[in-house]
Amino acid sequence: MTQAPQLDPILENILDQARWAPSGDNTQPWRFEIVEPRHVVVHGFDTRSHCVYDLDGHPSQLSLGALLESLALAASSHGLRMEARRRMAMPDTLPTFDAYLVDSPGLLPDPLAAFLPQRSVQRRRLSTRRLRASEKAALDACLPPGYTVQWYEGARARLACARLMFANARLRLTMPEAHKVHRDVIEWGARFSADRIPDQALGVDPMTARLMRWVMQSWRRVDFFNTWLAGTLAPRLQMDLLPGISCAAHFALLADASPRHVDDYVAAGRAMQRFWLTATRLGLQLQPELTPLIFARYVRERRTFSRTEGMPELAQELAVQCQAVLGPAAFDRAVFLGRIGAGPAAQARSLRRPLRELIVAPASGP
Fold this sequence. Notes:
Radius of gyration: 20 Å
Structural class: alpha/beta
Order of helices and strands: HEEHEEHEHHEEEHHHEHEHHHEEHE
Helix content: 40-55%
Shape: globular
Largest sheet: 5 strands, mixed
């Protein structure tokens, strides 16, 4: 049996750290092709063909941006600068980057690199203690030029954001297209998962988790419980409303201009990753809240996302509510939403595929 070639130790460490970048539903939409010890091709992909949340692949492109930023951070620990160039001939469904690691004498390690494996999602309640001025200043300062953060603090603002997420969850949990996604991305009876979301990380109590597991086995059960037994109420309370109230603040990351193309979303993903890692360095926990922006874009662009009666009307109501909560300027320029606060790190979380599973053989031919 032929053994896999030995990886350059420095490159192996960089890739091993970078693979902890966040991705929607832990899809990890990237694979690595090793060309040389200082040249890696990042083969990106998206899930737009089967995931209603991955509109035009933009959420996956955010994740790819987070991966590239993670590569740069990990490389800095070895005195290397990462330079990424997108292959413009590749389709948007397969964003592909040549990542070069360049010797940079005098380059100091970025302190955020140490927090790459620690960063995770916390879906449970957090402290309502307001963020300190020093914490907000650090989070503001970590963003690259072209990005700012808008805060939604105080009991009234947190409640408005929580109600937005509660309404958003009603749409997600009553739509068959979303049920297919949820069914496939949850690993039941698990505290950790290498390629999905473990059910113990969802933020619901054990009884609700057991009921969800049984109900979600078929859409007929989901539809019956939603129609006759208020089946969405317990999950929405536990995963959306109560956590939305129990946090320090909600926030929106804003780009100077509304994102339009692959490179815009990749750049936004790099900014998002720096923000999230800075929160981790400060001992703060974070949970993404991206789906209201996604459904609002479906509405704004008059795109069909469900064939179920009533879903477009729910999405329209959600888009109006989202704009009212965020404000018109933030609504147009927001690239990422989330909630944040002090609290313990999640005891259950998504892990990552082993590095060897993420490495692909070089493509044949020129």
